[in-house]
Amino acid sequence: MTIEKLKSTNYRVQVWDNELQCKVGLGTYPTMAIARAVLRKAETEMSLYGVVAERRDQTFGRLCDQYLATIKHLAPTTQVWYKNALKPARVHFGETSSVRRITKTHVQSYASQLIDSKRAANTVRSYVKVVSILMNFAIELKLREDNPAVRLRNLPKKRRVEGSVRAVDRAEHERLVDSVQCVFALGRGKITYRGYRVMVSVMPAIGLRRSEVQALTWAMVDLNAGSLRVEFQLREDGRLDPELKTEKSRRIVSLPDRIVKELREWKLECPPNALDLVFPSQRGLPQNSAQFYRIWKKAVAAAQLDGLDPHDLRHTFATWNLSAGCNPKWVADQMGHEKTSIMLDVYAHLLPSADEEAARKIESWYGNQATFEISSHILPTEAAEAI
Description:
The protein folds into four domains: about 1-50; about 60-140, Tyrosine recombinase, N-terminal domain (DNA polymerase, domain 1), CATH 1.10.150.130; about 170-350, Intergrase catalytic core (hpI Integrase, Chain A, Orthogonal Bundle), CATH 1.10.443.10; about 350-385, no CATH class. The chain is about 45% helix and about 10% strand. It contains 15 helices and ten strands. Helix 2 (about 60-70) runs antiparallel to helix 3 (about 75-95), helix 3 crosses helix 5 (about 120-140) and helix 6 crosses helix 10 (about 290-300). It is mainly alpha-helical.
């Protein structure tokens, strides 16, 4: 146990924790007398409990290293992404700062710094999310009791211009599919793997979110019935998470005959994998976002569809079906929307106007009548009597 005098004339108290194999900081104090009193109290607690009561701590840098050591099972590219995502946090919070002393204000300041550095909105949110994951890890280790990185204010949101929805037409989609990478390096050789191409091919026809498509297993796909069940979404750490975005997200989706045929053919060449995924990576592991987006961006560039996002294929599903006259309620159910109104707010411009639709239906009804005489059997009793 030590008391260290700092340049600021304060005194820092530290004790050695045998369980954590590191020094535990007990804080800084303005006078030597207070620091000695804290030290005596800590000595008593160590002798009684083996740890300093309520003050188990860890440095932020060491916590980062401990967490990175727990994700060795993930793909190397994913591990590198997490390591890079933590670099600005390690600089901002400091390698030797106390995990217990990090507050929501500190994390909010970190988010503001990321925004000021002109990083993309998704990057800011992802980097803050990694800090949140790290704080949850600290809670598991009993290094703190709460997560200061949740429910932050003013995080940037990736928004489209109001009223704009990007969807591709059939020719653009075919061009995109043909541009998806199929040859990959493996060891000293190369392999042909069509999984990403098939995935991009079927996405506009099934309306699933990217994470839902990546989490599909063959047990969830009934090719004989022409349907699939959405039960999981793929998380960044490779887990199949049963907690979906909404209750409506857990759904059964109808498959067009063309998609059933394509999936039958793909099932014959899909590499075996531990989770029985429909779309694993070329190594037979769960896909990771970093690799998927590298493949996606190359395909988008080759197809000359600059700025196209994987979520636009979900917009394409809605656009194609509503333009074809499908029932909006059915489309909303297929997409897993909580309310049909949510979908109609986004895609209302694809539907005929209310006046035009009403006029068309009335004209069609009149055209089907033998005469234009009004009969009581097609009107409510009160209306017929009034006429």
